[in-house]
């Protein structure tokens, strides 16, 4: 499950650009169901997802984001890493039970 912060970063950046899920998926070279599951918190982001999202968001800055993408990109990568650590810890706890 993705972290709430990750979900909000992705959704907020998509909505600020007035993109549909399908448009973000196309630009990120991901499937629309993948993007939907990421935004819905039902899919743990992988580096492929983060890379695709970073590419999509960095090539088209939001209208109200004239400074570009570095701050949100760092946040996105950090959140994806946090989510992966949580998933790893949950798997370890399940395996120890």
For the termini, the CA-CA separation is 20 Å
Shape, principal axes of CA atoms:
elongated
Biggest β-sheet description: none
Structural class: mainly alpha
Q: What is the rounded Rg?
A: 14 Å
Unreliable spans: none
| Helix content estimate | over 70%
* Count of separate DSSP helical elements: 5
Order of helices and strands: HHHHH
Q: Give me the count of strands.
A: 0
How is this structure best described in words?
The protein is mainly alpha-helical and 97 residues long. 71% of the residues lie in helices and 0% in strands. The protein has five helices and no strands. The protein starts with a helix and ends with a helix.
Key phrases:
elongated; mainly alpha; 0% strand
What's the short version?
The protein has helices at residues 4-16, 21-28, 32-39, 47-59, 70-96.
């Amino acid at each position: 499950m993705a972290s709430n912060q990750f979900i909000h970063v992705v959704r907020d950046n998509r909505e600020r650009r007035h993109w549909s899920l399908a448009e973000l998926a196309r630009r990120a070279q991901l499937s629309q169901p993948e993007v939907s599951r990421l935004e819905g918190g039902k899919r743990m982001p992988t580096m492929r997802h983060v890379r695709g999202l970073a590419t999509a968001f960095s090539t088209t800055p939001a209208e109200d984001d004239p400074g570009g993408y570095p701050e949100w990109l760092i946040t996105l990568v950090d959140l994806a890493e946090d989510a992966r650590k949580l998933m790893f810890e949950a798997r370890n706890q399940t395996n120890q039970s």
